[in-house]
Specification:
Elements: H1 16-25, E1 34-37, H2 40-48, E2 52-56, H3 63-68, E3 73-75, H4 81-86
Parallel strand pairs: 1-2, 2-3
Length: 87
């Protein structure tokens, strides 16, 4: 169940790992946490915070960048996300 989504617009937490740590600290316990990102910084932040790193190649990054950043799955389109998330 999705309980909160954190968007950081004022650069208070420009480091992705710190932003995700803040979001985790302000959410109730979860069995599993997942981040969907289009850049390596998103996925590195996810790994640092024990989250499932899923990449989307339809953003600003290449499949190679996402793979190198430890993506456990990569969706090529937004429609492909459910399948990647559930696998």
């Amino acid at each position: 169940m999705l309980s909160h989504i954190y968007v950081e617009l004022d650069s208070t937490r420009s480091n992705k790992a710190k932003l995700l740590a803040f979001a985790i600290a302000n959410n109730p316990p979860a069995r599993q946490r997942t981040i969907i990102g289009d850049r390596k910084h998103d996925l590195i932040g996810a790994v640092t915070n024990d989250m499932r790193p899923i990449g989307v190649s339809c953003g600003y990054s290449s499949i190679e960048e996402l793979t190198a950043a430890s993506a456990i799955g990569i969706a090529n389109t937004p429609r492909g996300l459910p399948e990647v998330i559930l696998n």
